[in-house]
């Protein structure tokens, strides 16, 4: 059956991704401080989580509880060490983040494991370790990481900075107060007093008195995952620690207005330009906030049925490829084990069966109940969900195609296992790579043509030297190079004339990517068409270009982790284990060569293991007789 012309018209349209704020102000318009004050459950009456063995056993299977206690027993052997000035200075001296992170994150993860175990068991045997963990963290000069305080390395304790991990720390200490506060009082009443004092000085006061100083609270510029991630921890620590009910309501409302900044930054389709792995810190953290708000106000603060919230949530399954693989443009990771428990709850909350089934599928495939890591409120809610989720992988069916117009991302698959993703956009996205017009191809769930992803985060990663790193450059994405020149970073370097089309024969994205290149590349127009031909089970890349002068060299890059066979002219065979993809090109136009991007150095070490220990290969199709204008086509087909 053919698709009606009117539907084709609706599916084929030109869009623009101008970074902007849409002043939806969902919370600000629907709620007032007075309404929040009236709705908020008082601190002494709010009991969001189990606090003793009886309550835990009523909600969580005993097998899961015993596993959590064993994790707590392992943490009994952990030594809570101080963080030295030398280690804090690693970031500004060498760029290394790992030594500081391993100590700082290790302390918080182990403390949380101890707290969970003590709350579940309630025998007091974890309390001395908990005491030492709390005191050690309170003694730290800074709860965040040195990378987030500029180039000082050491913190200015008179000017507290709220970052992701200082906010996370506040949540850990707040849950300590909630779960074992009375036991701490029996040890020494100064412990809980210290918890509140440090949290108040480091988090509450800065967020109440001058939140505008932090870029992730901007009301005029787009903000990224930092906003909801921090808001969720501010909400949790405030709700569990603040005894002044007026101030507690004021901070809760401040966090709601703060969260508006993130929701205002989203486009109309709720796309996450940071990619799926960051969505779990961005859109996922929005859900953490919404759960806390709903719970703490007897469901009186509830925006689950807002259309934007639903679109933001559904983004994550639209970018799922297969198994652990997700579309990974920009700094997003190519693999992750999706948090099925959280996705299931989110799907139920917004009444979206596809997302709920995605969560059930994910939990059936990856049935871990992870308590280690960030977003502790999510970890606790996950524990409380285990007994009610149906681990079922039969009802989830990946979407055949998706078009997320605000970030100009297209995904498509056919019934043979051929998967394509591509995007337009611009080169100033959050965690940006210079990759306008890039595409990836998977076949039967295996990565064949890839976006290599990011390397290790160091000082260079978020500095002026960012685009010296090969994995951020368009020269190491599936894009053309002219005289060795690739795309440029910046908001003005973007795709134009972007159009998405879907009909019974194809799913395609066409765009002019000339604007993503600097003037010295000499590109007048570069029209790129990326399409999946549904009936032919092929992918086509069609490039049509006009240059201002005859180039010395013109090359097309293909990135892969496959074994590559280029022995036959006009054909490249990509082999990933037992799966093959064949690319065809015009041998009269192109010669083929390969090279291996570096895996040496602090930023590149992860490429030794990132893709299942398969190293990244770059293929260069070099034009034999480059001229000022021309056309070429690449075809890809499963074998």
From TrEMBL:
Every Heparinase II/III-like C-terminal domain range: 415-550
Alphabetized Gene3D superfamilies for the sequence: 2.70.98.70, Chondroitin AC/alginate lyase
Cited InterPro entries: Chondroitin_lyas (IPR008929), Hepar_II_III_C (IPR012480)
Keywords: Signal
Location(s) in or outside the cell: Cell envelope
Leader sequence residues: 1-19
Superkingdom in the source lineage: Bacteria
Annotated protein name in UniProt: Heparinase II/III family protein
Stretches that traverse the bilayer: none
